[in-house]
């Protein structure tokens, strides 16, 4: 229990720091103008590169500590650059450099914390993941109320707490397997990992594009100021994480089923919110963000579940899963920026809604087909079970008939055993191998059985047994 609490606190502190750089409300409070899209490109590009490097470095047995040090140094540098830019007004170059350093920090440290979450056990990691995300959302809400300088100091404190928690857990995590990137026991369990993760990853990537595009639209034309968007999204994240925790408690670990709930949430927003035009845009962004958050949590949970038991495997896989959606956000933001010429953001919003509807239709069709296939598979399994029960019952009745005929006609025990095989249509070679008899001995026993039962061929014997069986 104490280990789980330390994991929740440490992960929440680091994730809160990462969220500060992901949502960057502070960007609009700086004493100089900065291109938010360019900052986002630097942040996510460095994050993806760092995640790839982590996945490669984790093939080495002693890479955890160097990766943790590099990630901590990245975040420390990002906070120092941001503080210097705020104090001196030195310019946007420092902000972009801070984004690069923050991307390195998140791309390296977040996967390591997924490893720590996986070490809490198959029953507890869902609670730890949800509780850590929830606590980070609450922390981020509190940080949004702080001025930039105080926010930077609080992030430094959170980073230090996270590092202490990670080091404490590192000292007591000696029970996790380190035998290769995949140990042999886990290979069999992970054969379907890519198939299991494909749907949530594709789904969250598509939602990332939609989310990035709508975020740009609302930032310029929406009813809510850009500087408040992070607060709104964090509030959405808190509600989403609370729902995730409830699902972990009552959903019996079927994390992939949450994707269907995401579809329902977004479809509800797309269908009903046009009737409320004044708040439609912001409500749509919030609904897409909620679906995106759930899909992220599902992909994280599936990665942890499928890769648990090997710290190097889970870090490499988690790095890929964590970085995968980030290019989608940048792509969506870029599309919205390029398409929405001359402030035609309504067109961009309409295009995104149309793409969302098309996607929902396609996924709905695939979901229905999957349900139909599963229903057909269940029907086939049920039919096979019925056939197996019928065959077993028929064999039992035939065996009973053989025993009654053998007793009535004075067959020996050996002849009775052979009668069972002959009634199944077995040939002499099979009977000889099954009873460890020579071919001549089988023929001798067969003649004796035919004589006692007054039959002249195997088919007559089979018919006699079938007539005697109480079918």
From TrEMBL:
User: What residues form the membrane-spanning segments?
Assistant: 5-24, 36-58, 67-87, 93-113, 125-142, 148-167, 192-211, 231-248, 255-276, 282-302, 314-340, 346-368
Pfam families given for it?
GerE
- Cite the entry's keywords alphabetically: DNA-binding, Membrane, Transcription, Transcription regulation, Transmembrane, Transmembrane helix
List residues of the HTH luxR-type domain.
Answer: 404-469
Q: What InterPro entries does this protein's entry cite?
A: MFS_trans_sf (IPR036259), Sig_transdc_resp-reg_C-effctor (IPR016032), Tscrpt_reg_LuxR_C (IPR000792), WH-like_DNA-bd_sf (IPR036388)
Entry's SUPFAM superfamilies? C-terminal effector domain of the bipartite response regulators, MFS general substrate transporter
Entry-linked PANTHER family: DNA-BINDING TRANSCRIPTIONAL ACTIVATOR DEVR_DOSR
Q: What is this protein called?
A: HTH luxR-type domain-containing protein
Source organism: Raoultibacter timonensis
